Amino acid sequence: MRKPRSVISMDSDKLGVAIGALFATVVMAAGFFYTQLSGWEVAFRTAVTFVAVYVVTFVFVRILLAIAPGESKTDRKGGRSIRQADSKDMGDQE
Hints:
Number of domains: 1
Number of strands: 0
Structural class: mainly alpha
Order of helices and strands: HHH
Distance between the termini: 8 Å
Radius of gyration: 20 Å
Strand content: under 5%
Helix content: 55-70%
Number of helices: 3
């Protein structure tokens, strides 16, 4: 018997925070180490970068989930994902 596949959760809020924090860290490092800006200017640029990347990621994931609803919908009967239901119906041949 095969192990079930792990599925990456496409939560727009969590992905937005993670990717926003990554980009904000890069902007902060570049501001302090490469351009020698003042601390307030680096903080402002970091905050603006985080908010902008968070919003873009949030909207992008929402649009992506709207375009491909089959991957995230669940079967009404058993609460299984459609992919799991299809693989069970096909017999999972090994």
